[in-house]
Specification:
This protein is α/β, with parallel strands linked by helices. It folds into 3 domains: about 120 residues, 2-Layer Sandwich (Beta-Lactamase), CATH 3.30.450.20; about 170 residues, Reverse transcriptase/Diguanylate cyclase domain (Alpha-Beta Plaits, 2-Layer Sandwich); about 240 residues, EAL domain (TIM Barrel, Alpha-Beta Barrel). It is about 45% helix and about 20% strand. It has 20 helices and 17 strands. The strands form 3 sheets. An 8-stranded mixed barrel has the order 10-11-12-13-14-15-16-17, surrounded by 6 helices. Strands 2-1-5-4-3 form a 5-stranded antiparallel β-sheet, sandwiched between helices. Strand 4 and strand 5 form a beta hairpin. Helix 8 packs antiparallel against helix 9, helix 10 runs antiparallel to helix 12 and helix 18 crosses helix 19. It is elongated. The chain starts with a helix and ends in a 28-residue tail after the last strand. The structure holds ligand C2E and magnesium ion (MG) (2 copies). One magnesium ion binds next to strand 13.
């Protein structure tokens, strides 16, 4: 039925008013943006304005009618989805870095804001601005994990420190939240490798979407995350979303529960950006290496200024430890698997201040705060001292010293180490080096130059922690080492897995062909010893032959030497 004239006029007025509002809105957006899109509730582009050809390779008319996701770089589609969701929940999201597929597949880094107007029937408006050189440089300066799109800890801490500083200068809130999904490992076990990757990617995207700038989120070990966010991201909502993501992937539909702690800034007006980054790194480091006994989200100090203070104190304590050589060398034998003889000892540091404990936390702290190379050099001095001061040692014993993957790229360390070795030529053949993967090496060419420098001087080099990280095989093919040490967790996995025996045998065979010897770590019983021996491993190390000890006599006679009887 046709309406009355006055009804029609009201309807037209309303349409005109809405249109005016949209135009005003579009005009406003353009004060700021290069591109504006209106998406309908299916996230299809219904309106586009601005130089779309420049940023998407398509003319305005070609963009219309396409799903917006088609214009976005594949790695960022989940992020954009999540951002639009957030805009739906909160009405808007501000300034998040996303990448569009530009002309000829070139990635265009843009800053995106999204709005949902209540009166526009679930339509979204997205305004995108070409990111400034500074924003692009900040985003490109740090490595991102391919699977999650998240920065590594160093990158995250530096970027987060910049963003926190900028936010507090603008008088805005900046908050850091640490989150943990304790049951994620159980969910992962129920998934195949591809689904595991997709789940990690989805969690990474959900975190980025809620973070300040769309990228200040970090993964610190499986199921543990850090995130910088402002007042527009409600932690409870982020938590719910992460839990929902795990539930969606979990074939049992259970998903993973979630714990979190939030750190407010406190008074950071006098704190430098560098110290802020250091405080963040320190906290992440504690979080990553924590067990229930050592660190607990509920007991976490909730003020950033306190955390920074603690990190700064810890840095100066550690400098004191290096300067006073306040640590000892504990030894653990590496045993020939066939003959039961000791080939050499691994030298493991023990700090005086917590002499009974594993140094692992302190080592990773030193790595993350850029001090490990100073310590690694001090340790070489200590081990040379040990070899020199026990006259019998010089003939009888060999020792392997650990070098962090961080140190191999530090010129001052490499030069000082070469000098030390050149000053002590007697140590040739007595000292070996193990490069640990506790830090992933980013520059393999540089690592190889380091290895060549040592081998050229007559020192054998071992690749430690093989199998502990995804990069192991890449390392094996790129680095010219003498020995590979299989990480304890990889050995234990092989022991448990159906195809473990076949896999480990194939690996030792590959190493043999490459002329690389193998050591299996964490052998703590006779079964493990027999298993790795059958798989063709050359040497073993583990509690079966004693825990690391400062007294080399503890290994003479070698505990459980009877296991080798009849083989010598
Ligand atoms: P890593 O180099 O892989 O050293 C082997 C670790 O495994 C040692 O832990 C050792 O005590 C432990 N281990 C040996 N046998 C067994 C076993 O049967 N079962 C179990 N569960 N563990 C076993 P530790 O001494 O706590 O050292 C931990 C890590 O700290 C080392 O791992 C290494 O990455 C780092 N580290 C130790 N000393 C130094 C050092 O002087 N410099 C550097 N850069 N890193 C060091
Ligand atoms: Mg080692
Ligand atoms: Mg190891």
């Amino acid at each position: 039925m046709a309406g009355t004239t006055s009804e029609k006029a009201t309807g037209e007025d309303r349409t005109a008013a809405l249109k005016r509002e949209r135009d005003r809105y579009v005009a406003l957006a353009f004060c700021w943006a290069d591109l504006l899109f209106e998406l309908d509730h299916n996230l299809t582009v219904v309106f586009a304005a601005g130089p779309t050809r420049l940023f998407t390779g398509l003319a305005e008319c070609e963009v219309k009618g396409r799903p917006f996701a088609d214009l976005v770089a594949p790695a960022d589609t989940k992020l954009v989805d999540d951002l639009i969701d957030l805009a739906g929940t909160h009405g808007r999201v501000d300034h998040r870095l996303v990448r569009l597929c530009g002309r000829n597949g070139r990635l265009m880094t843009m800053t995106m804001a999204g709005y949902m107007l209540e009166r526009s029937r679930g339509h979204f408006y997205l305004a995108l601005r070409n990111a400034t050189a500074e924003e692009k440089a900040a985003a490109a300066a740090y490595d991102r994990d391919a699977e999650t799109g998240l920065y590594d800890e160093q990158g995250f801490a530096e970027l987060a420190a910049q963003r926190i500083r900028a936010a507090t200068e603008r008088g805005e809130d900046a908050t850091v939240s640490l989150m943990e999904l304790p049951d994620l490992a159980a969910v992962m076990q129920r998934l195949g490798p591809r689904a595991q990757g997709r789940l990690r990617g989805a969690l990474g995207a959900a975190l980025r979407a809620s973070s300040t700038g769309g990228d200040t989120a970090v993964q610190v070990g499986e199921g543990r995350y850090g995130l910088v966010h402002g007042a527009d991201a409600d932690v409870a909502v982020v938590k719910e979303e992460l839990v929902a993501v795990t539930r969606q992937f979990d074939p049992q539909g259970e998903g993973a529960g979630m714990e979190s702690a939030t750190i407010t800034m406190g008074d950071i007006s006098g704190v430098s950006e560098e110290d802020l980054a250091r405080g963040l790194l320190h906290t992440l480091n504690e979080f990553r290496t924590s067990t229930d006994e050592t660190f607990n989200l509920h007991s976490l100090s909730t003020r950033m200024d306190e955390l920074v203070g603690r990190a700064v104190d810890k840095v100066s304590t550690f400098r004191g430890i290096i300067a006073n050589a306040a640590f000892d060398v504990a030894l653990q034998p590496i045993v020939d698997v066939k003959r039961g003889t000791i080939h050499h000892f691994e030298a493991l540091c023990r700090f005086h201040e917590n002499a009974a404990e594993s140094p692992y936390q302190t080592i990773t702290f030193a790595e993350s705060t850029g001090m490990i190379h100073e310590f690694d050099l001090a340790m070489v001095r200590k081990v040379l001292d040990w070899l020199w001061h026990m006259p019998a040692n010089r003939q009888k014993y060999r020792a392997a010293v650990n070098v962090s993957g961080h140190s191999v790229g530090v010129e001052a360390y490499v030069t000082a180490l070469h000098q030390l070795l050149d000053d002590n030529p007697w140590a040739q053949g007595r000292l070996l080096f193990e490069i640990t993967e506790s830090a992933r090496m980013s520059d393999l060419e540089q690592a190889n130059t380091f290895i060549k420098g040592l081998r050229g001087r007559g020192y054998e080099v071992c690749l430690d922690d093989f199998g502990a990280g995804a990069a192991s095989f890449q390392y094996l093919s790129s680095l010219d080492v003498d020995v590979v040490k299989l990480d304890g967790s990889a050995v234990h996995n092989a022991l448990r897995a159906d195809k473990g025996r076949a896999f480990l045998s194939a690996l030792t065979e590959l190493c043999r062909r490459l002329g690389v010897e193998t050591i299996a770590e964490m052998i703590d019983d006779g079964r493990g010893l027999r298993f790795v021996r059958d798989c063709g491993v050359d040497y073993v190390q583990g509690f079966l032959f004693g825990r690391p000890s400062r007294r080399v006599e503890d290994f003479s006679p070698l505990p459980h030497a009877n296991l080798f009887e009849g083989r010598r």
